[in-house]
Amino acid sequence: MPRHPDNMPMDKENHRKCIYFFFKLVYMISKARIKFIKSLQLKKYRKQEQSFVVEGEKNVRELLDSDYVVTQVICTEDFKNTYYSKANKKIDWVLANDRELNSIGSFKTNQSALAVADMKTIRKPSPKSDEWVLVLDDIRDPGNLGTIIRTADWFGLTDIVVSAETTDVYNPKVLHASMGSFCRVNIYPTELSTYLSAVSGKVYGTYLKGEDIHSLIKPEPGHLVIGNESVGISAPLEKFITDKITIQKLGGAESLNAAMATGIILDNLIRLQK
Description:
The protein is 35% helix and 19% strand. The chain is built from 10 helices and 10 strands. The protein is elongated.
């Protein structure tokens, strides 16, 4: 039986209150809410509900500051005390402890908060003449996609076009790797052949055999196509590529990580453009 600090046994009433308070802390989130949040970890249910889950203090903070419609936030008391007054009052706030947050999220540590938001309406890019658009052909790794979104945001890109085979942008691992950048970058899933056939201007594509990115003098802004991690840009898209480019290989590695290659190429294209 639990004891008071002075080692005297608790009476039955105080013992009952302690047990009640413990279970209230651990089970303040309803089973229905937990089931709903866990279901959104699967693409099928995200599509059905047109909702997605964001985990981690930084990502949730970025989400609250964005134009996404946030419907609920499950968080610690400290997080709510800090951000509640700055957020839309229509949001359903639910207090939880670290144990609960870790149990309902897809990561071992959730860093104080988890949120549910509505998906945005898909918007086709309409870039200006001096803007770059990133095109991703069959990027399957969620970590790569999230890092590419973060990289695009770093370099000021606001539009990414992705193939139907590319992993879902609302996958929790993608959102986690993007570190909040998904809030500022528009993702447009589409059939790439159809999209690129209507594009005017330059379409750069990454190939093992292409013009060294460092040898370009003043690249003209346009579209940059990044291929699959293993097989590169798919054959049907090659006819739309106006300029094949590459990163000069100096060592023995067979290939570069897609996210790493994207960062190197964007850095050079944008730097050389100026």
